[in-house]
Design brief:
The complex is a heterodimer. Chain A is an alpha/beta fold. Chain A has 27 helices and 13 strands. In chain B, α4 runs parallel beside α5 and α5 runs parallel beside α11. The chains are: A alpha/beta, B alpha/beta.
């Protein structure tokens, strides 16, 4: 029985129909509708940024010509209806016809190599751009071929001012243009693949920047299109440069500038990993070897570019709510594909994960009650004061009664807070039941701290319910699938054994914590060992603070002053690299320019799997104040 | 029909035969050697030196390559320095060259740097070029070997012989673990048309060499291949016969999830290759390629992808196949750093076994370095 949640990324599903059936249209509408309505989505360079697993490639694949065709082929199918609607809202489909001819170029291999050539920067850039353009043209034609469109029925609609540029790309004939693109690709490839780069004088002129189809093409026309009942179909070419972070920062800047030019008529998207150290801090790391890097005056990010963040967009609360909606929708689609659960219509992840809290066992409850009583005695708190604090706790959450264990844990926290707030009065006047300097209230913070205390003391289930599952995923779709997979497996097992399909809180908690630990243990990206040391160091400090008896803070992050963080690349390059990879692989989420206590902080928030593994809150905002020097020490201490 | 093969027959030795042959060969009068070797932390760095007679040691031009990776462990650096000093003492004319494996933006540049370094080396008066890849990573060694093959094949007049040596010791291999980078890329010079439009319809066959602890790396390579072609066929290479008879079984167990689920490997697709015999794997790969070329010729062609990540001796077989058919791609994930279990490495009980392959020169041709035409 295959669990579709184990299929790591939608990019692995090469079959368009299978791919489309699991794509959630929510992010499309949320992210792309506004720029589409404003007319910027296909009009200027659009920069998409997100960590691995945030759906960059999925998004790009959705706009490839073959995926659009698959959507149109299946009009009427409820599976694709929502996706088709979202694509129509984005302007990729209109009146049942595709409007764009999209292709995705993965930038992982080949392109970075140009930077190593011993040529001038302009020549290197010229070759890179020729290569990208040739491959884009070839990819567009590949999509057309798959759609059954022959080269001879394709013509280029050039820009009115294209001039002699048209000749350099082979003219308006599709066949000639394709042939020319092949020649250019082959010529550049030979240089890239050569063991030693040839002399500059030996490079053919065709690959040095004269080949510029992006400057020439306005539309690609299919003269007799079966998609349009034999009538002509004009398509807007779209090139999507996926994983462009593999380029050298200088190459990336040059390419960004090149694609930002307003005179280009084709649509162009650049998808990169979200990484706070790139390009700003990472650029300073490589500053030494880019003395001749050109600057690009006149390029205005706001006017010439559209930036879309796939993770960390908008208000932080909005992010959570939006991701929860998207993740539930995604889970619904995946559960529908599950051979056992889908057929039984068990497709709502929310109703399969119980949100009913589980109390600790009676014997442990007695132990806890004794502990609180002895604490009260040790802290010299009167029974009357205790009763008052209990009344405060009863006031909190009147609607949903608190379980006894939580009430006791909250009481323990309030007892400690009471002592702290009465310390000065008691010493000066010897009052047996002094009033606290500030009134004590049982609020959400005390409740959360109490739950965490019970988690660490009695392993009381803390992580359960669909919202916790979503929050533990750090707004990352792939992580969500990884965490969900083990829960779905267990639900399926229960169904097979004729048990109720709903997973209780204890089982969810245990499975999620195990999964979190396994994910952290399985990290194998660069500097993974050091990242593990860093996040473990931060997490241990957070746990230490979380377990303070007065529960004053439940942190899951580490804050350094923004200025301190910005100088990290220069002050500790190793730590900068470790943080860079920690961010890139979701071990840590960086929250820059966070205002708190009249200071500007940069928060390193621990990723969901680390919080699960270490037993930290999934709520945001709590952080320990520190410095990058202390972070560096965590690496050194661990090393020793 | 089988095509002519470049190294069929091949001059090749291993174990005590390799030692004996090299001692005799290097003792011949008139030998003038260019030695390229790694001066790294790997204890096998110094294995080759004693095979050179003392007079030849004095005259040998040695290029000792130090592979530089970011933030190395101090103990490994100390070991590398120790090995370098030992080699320098044996070969007074030796020069040490550092090669940056990664650029500052973490791009892999080691292979390109190695090829650049070799381009500047004169072969005047050299009778034999020895590349000892025992302590070199394949991302550096393969481009170097390819460079010399290319240069020697196109030179006119008397040219040098090219020998490749690898020191095989699975126990040391097990003591070294690598931290992989996050980039899957073809080894420099071994792209084999990867990514070209004309190859876009080719049926991909991936032949990964399985090795202990290589699961994450091979999974990453596979993921990349699957993104290109969903029905990529996988034929894993297992070392058998092997110095550890249970090794293939252990590898099947280690890779069980991949073999059964992700890669969907049919049991008939497993390739067994003699762990110590590069030629066994070389012949197998070419035989498979010959068959596939015929089958897929009319439907977009065939593309073979190799990932030789296990033992060095076996990886030589993959190298030879890729040198012969220049449309093979070698996909690799470079190590960003290494860790060495020093106690294990220092207490290796099994002696090293040398593998020597004479790749080019007198053994194959007309005395001028030209290879004999196959009948």
């Amino acid at each position: 029985m295959e669990n579709p949640f184990y299929r790591r990324a939608t990019e692995q599903l090469r079959d368009d129909e299978a791919f489309l059936s699991i794509v959630s249209p929510q992010p499309l509408t949320y992210l792309l509708k506004r720029p589409a309505e404003q007319g910027t989505l296909f009009d200027r360079i659009v920069l998409f940024r997100g960590a691995p697993g945030t759906g960059k490639t999925t998004l790009a694949r959705l706009f490839e010509f073959s995926a659009l065709r698959a959507v149109l082929r299946s009009t009427g199918s409820t599976d694709y209806e929502a996706v088709a609607g979202a694509l129509e809202e984005c302007g990729a489909i209109k009146d049942g016809l595709p409007m764009i001819l999209g292709c995705r170029l993965p930038m992982e291999t080949d392109y970075r190599d140009f930077w190593e050539f011993p040529y001038s920067e302009s020549l290197k850039s010229g070759m890179l751009f020729s290569f990208i353009q040739a491959r884009a043209v070839l990819a567009w034609f590949r999509h057309l071929h798959v759609a059954g469109v022959s080269d001879s029925t394709v013509t280029i609609v050039p820009r009115a001012d294209s001039g002699s540029g048209l000749e350099t790309i082979g003219g308006t004939s599709g066949t000639a243009m394709l042939e020319r693109a092949r020649e250019v690709e082959r010529a550049v490839y030979e240089i890239v693949g050569a063991l030693v780069a040839p002399n500059e004088a030996d490079i053919p002129s065709s690959v040095t920047g004269t080949y510029r189809p992006f400057d020439v093409i306005e539309r690609i026309e299919i003269t007799t299109s079966s998609l349009n009942q034999g009538k002509p179909l004009r398509l807007l070419p779209l090139v999507m440069l996926d994983d462009a972070h593999w380029l050298h920062p200088s190459q990336f800047e040059a390419m960004r500038h090149w694609l930002a030019r307003r005179e280009l008529r084709i649509a162009r998207w650049v998808l990169t990993r979200f990484d706070i150290l790139q390009p700003s801090e990472a650029l300073s790391i490589v500053a030494d070897d880019r003395t001749d890097r050109p600057s690009y005056p006149g390029l205005s990010a706001s006017r010439d570019e559209e930036t879309i963040l796939l993770q960390g967009w908008g208000q932080r609360k909005d992010q959570r709510n939006t991701f929860r909606r998207m993740a539930r929708d995604m889970a619904h689609r995946y559960l529908e594909k599950h051979s056992l659960l889908g057929t039984r219509r068990l497709v709502d992840i929310g109703s399969l994960l119980s949100e009913e809290a589980e109390q600790i066992s009676n014997s442990r409850l007695v132990e806890l009650a004794k502990h609180v009583a002895s604490m009260q005695s040790r802290l010299k708190v009167t029974d009357a004061r205790r009763a008052e604090l209990e009344a405060t706790i009863n006031e909190f959450r009147k609607a949903a009664a608190l379980t006894e264990d939580i009430r006791l844990a909250m009481l323990a926290i309030l007892l400690h807070r009471y002592v702290i707030r009465t310390k000065s009065q008691a010493t000066l006047f010897g009052d047996e039941d002094p009033e606290p300097s500030r009134p004590l209230v049982a609020n959400q913070g005390v409740y959360e701290a109490a739950r965490l205390h019970l988690l660490h003391r009695f392993e009381r289930p803390f992580y359960f319910g669909a919202d916790d599952l979503c929050d533990a995923s750090s707004e990352n779709a792939e992580l969500f699938l990884q965490l969900s997979a083990i829960l779905v497996d267990t639900i399926a097992t229960q169904v097979i054994r004729s048990k109720p399909p709903v997973l209780d809180a204890g089982t969810q908690h245990r499975l999620l914590r195990e999964r979190g630990r396994r994910i952290v243990e399985a990290w194998n990206f660069p500097y993974a060992d050091k990242v593990r040391k860093l996040v473990t160091g931060i997490a241990r400090k957070c746990v230490e603070t979380t377990l303070q008896p007065n529960g004053w803070l439940t942190p899951n992050g580490y804050g350094v002053l923004q200025s301190d963080f910005e100088s990290l690349a220069g002050s500790n390059s190793e730590l900068a690299s470790v943080v860079q990879f920690a961010v890139a692989y979701n071990a840590v989420l960086v929250v820059p320019q966070y205002e708190c206590k009249n200071k500007e902080w940069c928060l390193l928030e621990l990723g969901g799997p680390v919080c699960l593994a270490e037993g930290l809150t999934l709520k945001r905002g709590g952080f320990l104040e520190g410095t990058t020097a202390e972070l560096g020490k965590m690496l050194e201490e661990s090393n020793g | 029909m089988m095509r002519n093969r470049k190294w069929e027959p091949c001059v090749y030795h291993r174990g005590s035969h390799a030692d004996a042959f090299l001692r005799d060969y290097l003792a011949q009068v008139g030998r003038s050697v260019l030695l390229i070797a790694g001066a790294g932390f790997d204890p096998r760095s110094v294995r080759i030196a004693p095979l050179f007679p003392e007079s030849l040691q004095q005259a040998t031009r040695a290029i000792l390559i130090r592979e530089e990776r970011p933030n190395p462990v101090a103990e490994l650096v100390a070991r590398a320095v120790h090995h370098r000093d030992q080699l320098m003492a044996k070969f007074p004319l030796a020069r040490e060259h550092a090669i940056q494996i990664f650029a500052r933006d973490n791009a892999i540049i080691g292979g390109r740097e190695a090829a650049k370094l070799m381009t500047g080396q004169s072969l005047d008066g050299i009778t034999d070029v020895f590349v000892d890849m025992s302590a070199l990573s394949i991302g550096v060694a393969f481009p170097i070997i390819k460079h010399f093959i290319d240069v020697l094949s196109t030179m006119s007049g008397p040219v040098a012989n090219l020998h490749v040596i690898a020191c095989h010791n699975p126990q040391i291999d097990d003591a070294v673990s690598s931290n992989p980078s996050d980039t899957v890329a073809p080894i420099h010079g071994f792209r084999g048309g990867w990514g070209l439009d004309e190859k876009s319809r080719a049926a991909i066959l991936w032949m990964p060499q399985l090795g202990r602890g290589k699961r994450p790396v091979l999974s990453r390579i596979f993921q990349m291949l699957r993104n290109v072609q969903e029905d990529t066929v996988v034929c894993p290479i297992l070392p058998f016969p092997s110095s550890q008879p249970r090794l293939p079984d252990e590898l099947i167990e280690e890779f069980a999830e991949e073999l059964q689920l992700a890669w969907s490997v049919d049991v008939r697709d497993l390739i067994y290759a003699d762990e110590k015999s590069p030629l066994d794997l070389y012949r197998t790969i070419l035989r498979i390629d010959d068959a596939r070329r015929r089958v897929f010729a009319s439907v977009g062609g065939s593309q073979i992808i190799l990932s030789p990540l296990g033992s060095k001796a076996l990886s030589l077989g993959a190298l030879m196949a890729a040198l012969e058919r220049d449309d093979f791609t070698i996909l690799h994930v470079e190590a960003i750093g290494y860790t060495l279990d020093a106690s294990r490495a220092d207490s290796v009980a099994v002696p090293d076994e040398l593998v020597h392959i004479w790749l080019h020169g007198d053994a194959y041709g007309d005395g001028h370095g030209k290879e004999a035409t196959q009948k």
